[in-house]
Known about the structure:
- The complex is a heterodimer of chains A (115) and B (109).
- Chain A has strands at residues 4-7, 10-13, 18-25, 31-37, 44-50, 53-57, 64-70, 73-79, 87-94, 105-106, 110-114.
- With 115 residues, chain A is mostly beta strands.
- In chain A, strands 2, 4, 5, 6, 9, 10 and 11 form a seven-stranded mixed beta sheet that branches. A four-stranded antiparallel beta sheet of chain A has the order 1-3-8-7, with no helix packed on it.
- In chain A, 34% of the residues are buried.
- Chain B is mainly β.
- Chain B is 0% helix and 57% strand.
- The A-B interface holds A 2, 4, 40-43, 45, 90, 97-101, 103-109, 111 and B 4, 8, 30-31, 33, 40-45, 48, 50, 87, 89, 91, 95-102.
Amino acid sequence: xxxxxQTPRHLVMGMTNKKSLKCEQHLGHNAMYWYKQSAKKPLExxxxxxxxxxxxxxxxxxxxxxxxxxxxxxxxxxxTLQPEDSALYLCASSQDRGHSNQPQHFGDGTRLSIx
Amino acid sequence: GQNIDQPTEMTATEGAIVQIxxxxxxxxxxxxxxxxxxAGEAPTFLSYNVLDGLEEKGRFSSFLxxxxxxxxxxxxxxxxxxSASYLCAVVDSNYQLIWxxxxxxxxxx
Lengths: 115, 109
């Protein structure tokens, strides 16, 4: 139990579907992150929120749309995805952003498959 | 560009010792993390090094040499449950985490 919960654990969707991934952290952290993890590749940072404000958007296609309604919840809205978007999507949180010694705490991820 | 290198896969025997290396070239350095990730699970924090030297935590130790851009994770008395991927990540000058692709460690009886 890491204190970060992601739902669903698995998602299969067609390229024309719309779905959302949900992340909730119970750690009282102020920063939350979305990562994409593909096999044998480094984690790719997608979005960073600090105190509910988006502070980073690393050239992610617009078919991925994040939402952070409060400091405990983070969503990733998906629309018109491509087969290459199939991957494990990880949510993480940390006490604050920009403090080098604070580890990030990860959820178990959503395994996304695009048909 | 920024780069983190780790071996893709390693195999070791139960009860033995294994060393997983990580070399990095980054714009600035503000610390290095090691994480463990079991298949289908969340990465979990193992260690953080910012000063040169060895940090020991039970069966796991992590070493850092900033001048060489090098770290290793040492696992002693290997157990089957240590089969996992081990991720190295460096905090750069912008306090952003730069990740390696991970090392898959296979433990054999």
